[in-house]
Amino acid sequence: MKEQILEKFRSVFGCEGELYAASGRVNLIGEHTDYNGGYVFPGAIDKGIMAAIRVNGTDKVRAFSVDYNEMVEFGLNEEDKPRQSWACYIFGVCRETIKRGGKVEGFDTVFAGDVPLGAGLSSSAALESCFAYAINDIFGNKLDLFELAKIGQSTEHNYCGVKCGIMDQFASCFGKKGCLIRLNCKTLEYKYFPFNPEGYRLVLVDSCVKHELASSAYNKRRQSCENAAAAIRVNHPEVEFLSDAKRVWLDEVREQIPEEDFLRAEYVIGEVQRVLDVCDALERGDYETVGEMMYQTHFGMSKLYEVSCEELDFLNKLARKMDVTGSRVMGGGFGGCTINLVKDELYEPFIAAVKEQFTAKFNHAPKIYDVVISDGARKI
Ligand code: GLA
Question: Ligand 1 in contact with 6 (CB < 6 A)?
Answer without folding.
Answer: no
